[in-house]
């Protein structure tokens, strides 16, 4: 299976933009992926022809929008192979999905003296909601460390998990290191100790085929904007047995069955967790993004991105004063690096002047930076529409910056 990046690039008008008169090289895909016209066209069509609030109407437009949004739910269900479509909750993104679980699962199952485990390589959005919960409940937050290659030390799980451990929250792929974590192994081990697991799939949903039933994941969170879809929409998958027991997180319209001033009863799944007007046009856009990605094929995407990663890693390793952070055996197409003597902001800003978009800083993973004793990195992250020629442009850009700073380059 292979793909044609040059042909696929035509679906993304932004990739033909010029930045300061230079062709855009977009290497910030781990922050957000670009959106093809196949997705934006569907959204514009809904705004122009069918826009109406969903679920409550009896009229044509409302039915049409409702159908679009509920079809998107089924697309997500099939995409991650959930057993039921009502196990798919639409949220604003990964962050909101994790907050939902931390609040609602936390309310239901966590009390004083209990423990929550996260890993040292989590995005802040899979740390802070748990920390807030632990503070509220007088529970404790424990941390699964990683080694200097950026690989989780999963052998430590045995000593970390106790009979007070109520949940383990871990990412599938690290956004700042690119490490692909052995989540099946982690889930199996946690389950052998009766600990449910939340998987942050923000960085994996766009690279790897995910099957929540095969993984036996209890919760899984991701964002639409990292899957070539719109911003402001995401998914929380949860096993029915947990979602049924968990209380609603936010109150409002749609999540209720009956309201009186004395008592409110709640709607069934998934609506119990979707208070207020859903972000239905973006939800429909997310469905279109799933269609788009499936038409290319995640296996083809993954294979091509691995090719880009191998190409870039070899070239980066040949630069004498450059260090890559995140050298796990199993990695996705992310290269986090620093050049000795050049601040990451300087590198990022000078590359920007050449039309090359990379991310600089902590990437919302301050504990990862603390592990390495650094303040940040430059991160180049590749998607299927990137090319080896663009990687060459980045390498030439780095060489130029090295020369400006008088840093030996080759
Ligand atoms: N987890 C990981 C691993 C991420 O990379 C991100 C986004 N950078 C998030 C969570 C948060 O996603 P969002 O901002 O879309 O809610």
TrEMBL record:
EC number: 2.8.1.7
Protein name per Swiss-Prot or TrEMBL: Probable cysteine desulfurase
Molecular functions (GO terms): cysteine desulfurase activity; pyridoxal phosphate binding
Similarity comment: family membership: Belongs to the class-V pyridoxal-phosphate-dependent aminotransferase family. Csd subfamily.
Pfam families: Aminotran_5 (PF00266)
Role summary: Catalyzes the removal of elemental sulfur and selenium atoms from L-cysteine, L-cystine, L-selenocysteine, and L-selenocystine to produce L-alanine.
EC category name: transferase
Organism, as annotated: Ancylomarina euxinus
Record CDD domains: SufS_like
Presence of keyword Transferase: yes
Record domain Aminotransferase class V: where: 25-394
Signal sequence, start to end: none
Keyword entries, A-Z: Pyridoxal phosphate, Transferase
Catalytic activity: (sulfur carrier)-H + L-cysteine = (sulfur carrier)-SH + L-alanine
Keyword flag Transferase: yes
Co-factor(s): pyridoxal 5'-phosphate
SUPFAM superfamilies linked: PLP-dependent transferases
Annotated GO biological process: cysteine metabolic process
């Amino acid at each position: 299976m292979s793909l044609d990046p040059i042909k696929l690039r035509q679906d993304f008008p932004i990739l033909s933009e010029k930045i300061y008169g230079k062709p855009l090289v977009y290497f910030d895909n781990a922050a957000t992926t670009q959106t093809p016209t196949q997705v934006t066209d569907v959204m514009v069509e809904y705004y122009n022809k069918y826009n109406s609030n969903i679920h409550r109407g009896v009229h044509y437009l409302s039915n049409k929008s409702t159908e679009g949004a509920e079809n998107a739910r089924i697309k997500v269900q099939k995409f991650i192979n959930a057993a039921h479509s009502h196990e798919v909750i639409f949220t604003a993104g990964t962050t909101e999905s994790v907050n939902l679980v931390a609040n609602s699962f936390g309310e239901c199952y966590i009390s004083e003296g209990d423990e929550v485990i996260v890993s040292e390589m989590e995005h802040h959005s899979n740390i802070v909601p748990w920390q807030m919960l632990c503070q509220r409940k007088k529970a404790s937050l424990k941390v699964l460390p990683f080694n200097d290659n950026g690989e989780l030390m999963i052998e430590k799980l045995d000593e970390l998990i106790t009979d007070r451990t109520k949940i383990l929250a871990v990412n599938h792929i690290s956004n700042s290191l690119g490490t692909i974590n052995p989540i099946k192994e982690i889930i199996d081990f946690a389950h052998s100790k009766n600990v449910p697991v939340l998987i942050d799939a923000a960085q994996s949903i766009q690279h790897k085929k995910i099957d929540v039933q095969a993984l036996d994941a209890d919760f899984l969170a991701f964002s639409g904007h990292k899957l070539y879809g719109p911003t402001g929409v995401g998914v929380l998958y949860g096993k029915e047995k947990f979602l049924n027991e968990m209380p609603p997180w936010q109150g409002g319209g749609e999540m209720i069955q009956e309201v009186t001033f004395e008592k409110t009863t709640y709607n069934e799944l998934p609506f119990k967790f979707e208070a207020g007007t859903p972000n239905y046009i973006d939800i429909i856009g997310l469905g279109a993004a799933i269609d788009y990605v499936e038409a290319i094929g995640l296996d083809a995407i993954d294979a091509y991105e691995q090719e880009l990663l191998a190409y870039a890693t070899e070239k980066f390793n040949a630069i004498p004063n450059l260090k890559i952070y995140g050298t796990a055996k199993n990695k996705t197409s992310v290269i986090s690096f620093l050049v000795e003597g050049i601040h990451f902001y300087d590198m990022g800003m000078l590359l920007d002047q050449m039309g090359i978009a990379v991310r600089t800083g902590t990437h919302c993973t301050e504990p990862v930076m603390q592990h390495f004793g650094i303040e940040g990195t430059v991160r180049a992250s590749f998607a299927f529409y990137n090319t080896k020629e663009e990687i060459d442009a980045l390498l030439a850009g780095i060489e130029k910056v090295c020369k400006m700073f008088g840093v030996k380059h080759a």
